[in-house]
TrEMBL record:
This is Bulb-type lectin domain-containing protein. InterPro entries: Bulb-type_lectin_dom, Bulb-type_lectin_dom_sf, SLSG/EP1. It comes from the Eukaryota. The keyword Signal applies. Residues 1-23 form the signal peptide. One of its GO terms (cellular component) is plant-type cell wall.
Amino acid sequence: MKLQLDILLATALTIATVSMVIAQVPPEKQFRVLNEPSYAPYITEYDASYRFLSSENQSFFTLPFQLMRDLDYTRWIWDANRNNPVGDNSTLSLGRDGNLVLAELDGQIKWQTNTANKGVTGFKILPNGNMVLHDKNDKFIWQSFDYPTDTLLVGQSLKLNGVNKLVSRTSDMDGSDGPYSMVLGDKGLTMYVNKTGQPLAYGGWPSQDFRGTVTFAVRREFDNLTEPSAYELLLEPAPEPTTTNPGNNRRLLQARPIGTGSGTINLSKVNYNGTISYLRLGSDGSLKAFSYFPPATYLEWEESFAFFSKNFVRPCGLPSFCGEFGYCSRGMCVGCPTPKGLFAWSEKCSAPKTTEFCGGRNKGKTVKYYKIVGVVHFNGPYVNDGQGPVSVNECKAKCDHDCKCLGYFYKEKDKKCLVAPLIGTLIKDANTSFIGYIKY
């Protein structure tokens, strides 16, 4: 578990004087640890440098979770202050008042749980990876499960009345908030990319009613504990308020997860005890699950589910699959579209920039397009292929008059128009009436 502990705006708490005595953290449970050299030598995700945290009064390890460590290949599963990490010689402390605080060397508080004088008596990392502050009855006063970043552990939820989204890292080397998010709304769980100020749906279950809460869960497939069993990785909605049929409502997801339903979504199965797993929104916009298998002799964390894969949703549907721009077919980047035709794809392949059409000396200039036959935009399936019916000239006019539009996609049979402020990966389609027009 990585404790990179970012800035959160802290509100000063005024504690009224009361006659009752508030439980406090006993001396043997208090700690103050220093972020100081040297760095740990183990292989880590993101090639990140990190340090162990240790205290005479507190264990920060519950197999396989620890603040900043796993024995094989470290996986970061939670950040508290990801947008502004602290520096050397900062401190993490839990004092008598029960407030968990991260402060710089000069004493400036950069992050805190705001649990002072609320009855906290101790700190734990639970076997499921949840980091908690608890009272004398082991009731949680604060828990990291209520503040997910880009990852859900087993039993962790997104909630309409709480934190309702995961947000990706900016990149593998930059842990700050990135452009991809997965948001739980009134109806559905939708993945968005926002690089232009306009969120564009590109994945998820946008028409699935989770009844206000979606939980990442792992369940044994068979109830007979004496028999071998696979384990299912699930997305579970909140329980039905009332039901006349309390039976199992699991529904195996079909190959294209766009539609209406109210059952549990079965993501994958693993042929071992997969109760230690996590679901992550990656810095590239991918959604993957990883499961921990201790008997493995190498790389104990196995990729156990991928949203964009040949077994689920076509890999070409991931906006970043071919980088900033590219033509994708059957999971391969097969070309770089240009006004002069289709050339070999490379990482240098790029779409036009909005700055070429917005303001400055380019303002009001005649807009040109080049045509790509048999192509769909990654956003199309999630917005019913755009607006319509409209004519192709009306569709062109929408893009002409929008300086942030980089191109438009038109389905001739249905007369549907999709205006695109972001191109990303273009998906090849056998239907030649699906046309893309790219500005240049």
